[in-house]
Amino acid sequence: MVGQAQAVLAVALQAYIAIDTDGRVKGWNPAAERIFGHTAAQACDRDVADLIIPAGFRDAHRAGLARLAAGAPGCRLGQQLQLSALHRDGHEFPIELTLTVTEEPGGRMFHAFAHDITTARRAARFADVEAALALGLAEADSSTVAAHRVVDALGVKMGWPVVELWLVDDQRQMLTCAARHTGPGWRLGDFALAELEPGVGLPGRVCAGGVPRWIPDLGSDGVSLRSVSAARVGLRVAVGVPLSTGRNTLGALCVYGDRVEDPEDIVLGLLGGLAAHVGQYLERRRAEELTVELARTKDEFLAMVTHELRNPLAVIASTLSMFGEELDELTSEQQREYLHVIARSSQRLSVMADDLLDLASLESGNLATDPVDTDLCAIIGDAVQACTASAAAKQLTVTVRLPHRLDLHADPNRLRQVADNLLSNAIKYTPAGGTITITAGLDDTARTIVWSVADTGIGIPRTERPRLFRRFYRASTALGKRIPGTGLGLVITRTIVERHHGAITLAEHTGPGTTFVVRLPAADA
Ligand code: ADP
Hints:
By secondary structure, this protein is of the alpha+beta class. It has helices at residues 2-11, 30-36, 40-43, 48-52, 58-69, 118-139, 143-158, 201-209, 225-232, 264-296, 298-326, 332-364, 376-386, 388-393, 412-428, 476-480, 489-499; strands at 15-20, 25-28, 80-86, 92-104, 107-116, 162-168, 175-182, 195-196, 213-215, 237-244, 249-257, 372-375, 397-401, 407-410, 435-442, 448-455, 503-506, 514-521. Strands 8-7-6-11-10-9 form a six-stranded antiparallel sheet, sandwiched between helices. A five-stranded antiparallel sheet has the order 2-1-5-4-3. Helix 15 (412-428) packs antiparallel against helix 17. The site of adenosine-5'-diphosphate has 22 residues, from helix 15, helix 16 and helix 17.
């Protein structure tokens, strides 16, 4: 029977530990070896308190044991207890334990059966965070309130000292910290920034790459100055996950801690799931905000569209009427000129109709793209060729600096639309005699194509730039000079670029003019 019991204990999944009245280990099965990290040989005859009981609980354990050894009934015997245990490597973890006692010839013997409940506890904690977050989002009546609920739910329930939610602005030129949770007693100093540029710090890197990042040791993360300030205030590890909606990265959810309690993949799994919820919420809210904005601008929009339609139509009608009246007297050169005016106006109408159609698909979320292996240089070259006449009409100097080829996987027709829009804007918004410079090439990593279209034109005031990619938005510089336009081109351009996993930004500019920069993944990337 004894041999049989030994055999059972040897294969049991629960740790079995026997101790005598002095707390000396007398039994230690293989599961105990696995759970606590000490072999049976290492544990045998040692004081169990030194082996598996965290320092803070040792006195209480010894006092309790002394009472039991003296024959006290022991109200905790036979009950399931949840306790903190110490592993040989020094980390503490939760266990569930049942204690029984037998009377042996040499005195009382205590038998404990225990198992590690880290996973179960974690699952309960994660479920708790998810529930708090879902409730927080459901009850939030604005994105700002939602952001605060998210960071607080994570900070409080998970015990992370710093949790931040960063959002990218409309133009993708700046990241703003929408909410930050700071645990009690933490002083963040210059770590607590309100804004970051894309690519800078953990949030910037997560947003730029669109993938989660784990920094196991902030102190030795030479890449970022912000990691250095994090380490200075006592933070050791950091994890960031993108807030994505499948198509776009809207921001990043980042947590910072002084130690790692859960394995990397598990933390990333939890945060990734939460970030997906938050991303969907933010996208829904943005759509709602857009609808409100759209409703507000509807009258403006109708006035604008009517005006924009009426202009070319009026030109066509009056030209046709003159054409009809003067037909007999017109030279063939003049006839050609009239036809040219009609063609230009109808071209404007058809561009507008296309833009409105694209806008409609964009609203419903299905702007079609048909990617193939293609060469951006050829696309840009064709677009430049097509606008030679209109640039020459304004005596604009067009400089093109392109390599031989730039291969990428993309929809050539859509990229041509991007090229046409950026070039036609540059021509439209640059007064006669100006310069337009188009460059493209691979960046240092050779994974990203950087394509810029710069002009020396009327420019866009800095304060208006964050609104530039909104539907129907027209800068005061364009409106002031009464240059016709609809404010649709850039929205469509940005959507196309993002569908190709790229980004479009307005570059900082010295001197007059505007520079748009498009970044697209190169073929090898
Ligand atoms: P549109 O040109 O039809 O108005 P877009 O969406 O292409 O529409 O551009 C939106 C606004 O951005 C323009 O109305 C103009 O104010 C500004 N803009 C775009 N490109 C330039 C540029 N190259 N220089 C100055 N302003 C520009």
